[in-house]
Fold this sequence. Notes:
There is one protein chain. Strands 2-1-7-8-9 form a 5-stranded parallel β-sheet, with helices on both faces. The chain has helices at 12-30, 37-50, 87-98, 140-145, 150-157, 174-179, 181-195, 216-230, 237-243, 252-265, 273-286, 320-335, 390-393, 413-422, 435-445, 460-475, 490-508, and strands at 63-68, 108-113, 116-119, 122-124, 129-131, 133-137, 167-171, 202-206, 234-235, 311-315, 339-342, 351-357, 375-381, 400-403, 407-409, 430-432. The longest helix is centred in the N-terminal third of the chain and has 19 residues, at 12-30. The chain has 2 domains: 63-288, Rossmann fold, CATH 3.40.50; 311-509, Rossmann fold (3-Layer(aba) Sandwich). Helices cover 40% and strands 14% of the residues. Residues 1-22 are annotated as: Disordered.
Amino acid sequence: MKSIKSQSRLPSHSRSKFTAARQLSDKMQTAKVKLPQKLAFFFLMITLSLGVMLPIQLQAGVNVLLIGSSYHFDQKEGGKQGKRLDPKSVAEELAKILNKGKRDGSSKVKFEDIYRTKETPIALGAGGRVVPTEFHCHSLAQYYFWPEGREARLKQLKGDAGTNWDYAVIVGDPYLIDKMPGIFAEGVHLIANDLMANGKTKTVLLAPWLENADATSHLSEVVYRVGQGLDIPVAPAGETVTKAGAIGRGDSAYLAAASVFSTLSGRESWGSRANAKRAMATILKNRSKPVFTNPYSKPTPFTMEFMDKSVLTFNQTGSSSEQGIKGGIINAMKQCKITPQEVKNLDQGLIDFNYGRANSNFESNKRYKVDPRKFHRSYGFPMQEAKGTAAVSMLYGIDKRYFNKQSYDDGTDLGVAYDMCRDKEVEKNIRAVPIRLMWAKIQDLDPVLRPLRDNWHMSRLADAASGTFIVTLITGKDPRGDEPKDKAAPEWKSWKARAIGYETAMRMGLNFDFQK
């Protein structure tokens, strides 16, 4: 920055930082905080260089919402976070910091637990056999679309439920961030949009940690990429805790809370001076790191590639469900001016991609194929439920489900992705299609819409979104086409379904340029 004398010379994001820093200076003057002129100027420059948002007010009385899951995803039976970041403990420590140890509760931190369960039956297969099923919620995205209590939950996010949130802290499940970062990016996008809709709630992402310290670097990269893409600051708690050797230690929650406070305020937190300095030091170190400009490339169930070909070959050995998605694939390719070519003879050379159903309890001969010698990439998707329950059960089916409350079943978006991770298929360019997540977005357009077009087959809108997702995730191209002017027309809903498929693929591939 060449000069801070004239705001008009700064880009808009720098002007907002300048304004934030100036407001902090004004608050300090109002509070009669006496600092030497040089020290005050240094403090101002630190605040600017951190790229922080409006700092936490010096006076008491702020309301903070901290959103995270008390149970982790990566075991079939679930389990408490253990040595990992415990969001509830972080919320308690943050309240202590804000109130400087006093118990008057003038500043409040509410912990909103993502984890929840719901018993609701599913109609399984074309025959519609009803199976009692328990669904579990671990991800931010599933939390956002979880049907039970959704209206009240969204009101709370928007500050319309009696509490106006000054600040919000978003914490993702560390396993999902590490192995399926795309679902974290989607969840942050959905929740942050509602949190910040009023223009007043300032939001921060908290980068967590796993038991394995070696995972911290990747967790931090993912959270910073998402924060950079969605313009949300990051509290690098995982790096601070790992460097301090505090994984599994009692003071890890304080270190995380101190990281949040210092990210928002630009100064050290109240409490343990040594740990407060550690948290602040990590933030200062990270401000000098270059932004991420290269595409994210680590193999995950949702990692994108950028295949640039005028003809794309594909193969599927399914039946009616796969045929429906094929229509979406062909239409998306044509929007990108790519010639689609279906190949049935597998001896004709390397095929660009294969796709098929992925649930363990459906016909194995119709599953996606894992054979890098024949297919450059393959996609698996979770089969839909039948008409008797699909309108409800598919909205619960993003994360995890158990038949009869005890038998784990992989027929969810993340159940399919979890199989790919555990079976080490992602390294073979195997990818998942999050049909239920995209359907939830489509239904938000019009609650009258239904996921099936008959007793069993997915709606044409779901097919359009799925086909577009598949094409975007392998090419990085935009298959949306021109938006129809008449939003009441069926053509607009078809366009919007393609837009949902495209935008979901881009975000889940950690590519955010399309939003700018």
